[in-house]
Amino acid sequence: MKADSRALLGFLAGAAVGALAGILFAPDSGTETRKKISKKTGEVGDQLKQKFNEFVDGVKEKYAGVKDQAEDVAEKGISKFNSLKNETRNTLPS
Questions:
Q1: Quick one: pLDDT band at residue 94, thresholds 50, 70, 90?
Q2: pLDDT above 60 for 1
Q3: Average pLDDT of the chain?
């Protein structure tokens, strides 16, 4: 997960820097440049929100899977314990 989040952050940072550099070096007036920067900032923000939400959804899915597996293991352990307990009771003299 850590590598995925670093790669995502690096990609988004690179995209933002590239877009900003392209806008700043374009031959437009100051007003047009500011409008473009504002627009690109909003777009990058939206992309960042979307990627973050996808990341959170992925974490939730993995957590749910691990939780289900842990519950299954716990249930099997309890069942095995109860089975052994009953076997022990049946083999011990009263």
A1: low
A2: no
A3: 84
- Asked if residue 8 lies in contact with residue 55, where contact means CB atoms within 8 angstroms, the answer is yes
Phi, psi of 28 (to 5 degrees): -120, 165
Q: Which residue do the tokens 């047009």 mark?
A: 32
- Degrees to nearest 5, angle at CA 65 with 57 and 46: 5
Domain ranges in the chain? Answer: 2-91
pLDDT for res 21:
80
Question: What amino acid occupies position 16?
Answer: A
Q: CA 75, 63, 81: angle at the middle one, nearest 5? A: 15
Q: Which two tokens stand for residue 45?
A: 């923000």
According to the model, what pLDDT value does residue 39 have? 86
Structure tokens at 82: 């109860």
d(C-alpha 79, C-alpha 54), whole Å: 38
Who's near 44: CB < 8 A, 6+ residues apart? 12, 15, 16, 19
